[in-house]
Fold this protein.
Amino acid sequence: MIVLIIGVCGCGKTTIGKALAKDLGWRFLDADDFHPEANVAKMASGTPLTDDDRWPWFDRVAAEMRRMNAAGKPAVVACSALKQAYRDRLAASGDVRIVYLKGDAATIEARLVRRAGHFMPASLLPSQFATLEEPTDAIVVDIREPIPAQVAAITRALREDAPRVVTKKILDQVSK
């Protein structure tokens, strides 16, 4: 199973994803690492990506998710995946559960201003919110909660998702 952590830039995808992966003993992948250099340069210059920029990136991320699912290797993947079409493309890679880190613009902008060493400038946050289509089929987590509380909420929701027997089986194995 892949747990896909989604949300706008600065919501905490990498921080929560790494903490969740560590808690579960799973591999963590940051979709930002799959961006072609042209995408990184475009965002770093303050220019939002277009769908034409994003599709090859999503295909690279989805291919890695398919490989991990096929090998039976659970993982946590952090990826903005702001539109339903993007999430559908990624979810087609196998057993995927989506977690949406939800926050307001003021909270996230304050985080982005303090963040150092990332190519995504705070000036692109409005374009992220403009693109965002909030998911209706995700575990929703309030980003104002402390990191351990967010991780606990995600883990609890994964365990309680009764129709996903494979998920429960994998989580039960990790707990032993």
About this structure: Residues 2-175 form a domain with the Rossmann fold fold (CATH 3.40.50.300).
